[in-house]
Amino acid sequence: MNRNRTFIRSLLFAAAVPQLAFTQPVIFSVLNAASYSAAISPGSLISILGTNFAAEPLDAPSVSTPTSLGGVSVRFGDLSATLLYVSPNQVNAVIPFGAAGPLVMTSSGGSTTYNLRLTRDAPGIFTQGGAAPLFNANLKQIDAIHPQDVVILYATGLGPIDASGQVVDPVDVFLGERKAKVLSAGLAPGRPGVYQLSLVVPRLATDRLYIRSGGWQSNIVYLSAYSEDFGSVLIPAGNNTTNVNGTIEGRYPSADPSFPHVACIGNTAAVPCGFESFSVTLHAGTYRTSFDIASDATPFDVAAVGEAGSAVIRSIRLPTPIQLL
User: Among residues 10, 32, 187, 264, which one has the fewest Cβ atoms lying within 10 Å of its Cβ?
Assistant: First the structure.
């Protein structure tokens, strides 16, 4: 009888060993919470993805900046990270300024170390429903923008700050392929890890938006990705062009429904704006488009853009033709 009890206890202990190993936190990746890239920097809001973190989802109280939440803590050397959210598979945290060395996470199941590379700047733009939300001076989300409007956007990873909370490194914001005038850039009040930028809208050639800071470029986001929950930022259409033609061929046939066909800005026709062909060997491409310029057209832009860069040609309206009697 005693031997049976000993045998049963041995089985229970053997079964408990894998369970203890399973509760050990495991980190799969650490990503910029705005761009979901691996580029992160001190002051950034990050998402830690893995398993066996907190027992259940838990948000930090809005008026606090805890360094321990749901039994989870994150450290960088001697510095503790502020935690905003924890769950079994994800932790959102703010890397403290001055952080260096590996990330160490501790949970109820134990501790784990994750080696990562921190850069001085790692800009990332926050999105909602696939598009970048913009706000007015009263922090009310807007649904349309025009040149010379003053708008506010939110990002993370803009690097070190001064005593007033403003960023130290130069920040360039490209809106519609042109550099916007940045009025201010600093930490957003009451939002750990979030930077607030105020800028003047330039003349728009596209609906793209991205940031460059400290030699790093953010994710490229769009203003017009429609969402039933959040809508989209509208760019007023014009009537500069007619008979816009274009197909996508080469590696991405125009018949491919997964290819993102984008309508022309300043043209009412919701059709693709060009013909694109690729060289598989060189990974290069050529872009072709055709359209008629309306007789009452105002100055407009022709833009060819890609992840690696962009080219913008500004067109000047032709003078009224001379009529011969």
Answer: 10
Within 8 A by CB and 6+ apart from 148, the residues are: 200, 201
Q: Please name the residue that has the structure tokens 């009451």.
A: 190
Q: In the numeric block, which tokens belong to residue 133?
A: 């939300």
C-alpha separations of 280 from 106, 251, 252, 277 in Å: 47, 8, 11, 10
CA 207 vs CA 134, 145, 149, 174, 262: distances in Å: 13, 11, 15, 10, 10
Q: Is the dihedral of CA 285, 288, 289, 295 positive or negative?
A: positive
What token pair was written down for 125?
């733009």
Closest C-alpha to 46, from 56, 36, 61, 55: 36
Hey, what are 72's tokens?
A: 């989870």
What CATH number did the domain enclosing 154 receive?
Answer: 2.60.40
Residue span of the structural domain in which 154 resides:
124-222
User: In the chain, how many domains are there?
Assistant: 3
216 and 133, same domain (yes or no): yes
Task: Indicate the burial class of 212 (C-beta count within 10 angstroms; 0-12, 13-18, 19 or more).
Answer: middle
Two tokens, residue 286 = 């050529």
Q: Which residues pair with 275 in a beta bridge?
A: 288
Q: What's residue 298's pLDDT?
A: 74
CA–CA gap between residue 231 and residue 131 (Å, rounded):
9
Q: Given CA atoms 28, 219, 92, 122 in this order, what sign does their dihedral have?
A: positive
Kindly state whether residues 252 and 295 are assigned to the same domain.
yes
